[in-house]
Amino acid sequence: MRKKSESRRNAIIDAAISVFHEVGYELASMSTIAARAGSSKTTLYSYFPSKTDLFVVAIQCIAEREFRALQTTLQTGQDVGTVLYEYGKRYLRAVLSPTNLSMRRMVQHEAGRTDVGALVYEHGLKACWTAMADYLQSAMNREQLRAADPWASAMHLRALYEAELVEFHLLGISQQVGEQVFAEVMQRAVNAFMAGYGPDASAGAGQKRHQPTN
């Protein structure tokens, strides 16, 4: 029974991801999602009490799937520059997927009106970038990077990963990016990070982590 219940829940989440991507958060209805999942509204509400709850879980599910792949990159034992390059490629490819772009637009739209943004951060983004901050801290401890605030360093790295492509894709200006261009963009991001945080960079802030608090 538990396996069947988990299977039904996953079917609802997959249906929700599809519907949210197609029509957006505002136009997505629990009735449409239930029909897409082959369930009744009563069954859907027994798993998720509101559309907001379902939306947050859908985002969390996407993040967890991608986070597992990103985590393996941090555990390869390769040199820091290679790890950051490979991590960045996987991260940016995920961010630029049509589903993730549409979800990001929806989260940003809802963030000023509901607590969706905070919930998505707590249940998705936070784990991803906390893992990166931990990795950077360990690299600093090994003197492969200069001593600095690991959380701030992770946020700077994220900004560099996204700097050349993400906003244009969110605005619908850019479309497909060839592998060569993508590789060059990622290499520039890693080079810029290492120029600021590499072991030969000037000493900077201390190591205290200052994650934003809610």
Give me the number of helical elements. 10
**Radius of gyration over alpha carbons?**
19 Å
Q: Indicate the overall shape.
A: elongated
* Helix amount: over 70%
How would you spell out the order of helices and strands?
HHHHHHHHHH
Fraction of residues in β-strands: under 5%
Main beta sheet: strand number and arrangement? none
User: What ranges have pLDDT less than 50 throughout 5 or more consecutive residues?
Assistant: 203-210
Distance between the termini: 38 Å
Mean pLDDT over all positions: 85
Indicate the structural class. Answer: mainly alpha
Description of the structure:
- The protein is elongated.
- Mean pLDDT is 85; it is low at 203-210.
- By secondary structure, the protein is mostly helical.
- It has helices spanning 2-27, 30-37, 41-47, 51-74, 80-95, 98-111, 116-141, 150-162, 166-170, 179-197.
- The chain is built from 10 helices and no strands.
- The longest helix has 26 residues, at 2-27.
Defining key terms:
single chain, 214 residues, mainly alpha, 10 helices, elongated
Summarize the structure.
By secondary structure, the protein is mainly α.
Set out the fold topology.
Elements: H1 2-27, H2 30-37, H3 41-47, H4 51-74, H5 80-95, H6 98-111, H7 116-141, H8 150-162, H9 166-170, H10 179-197
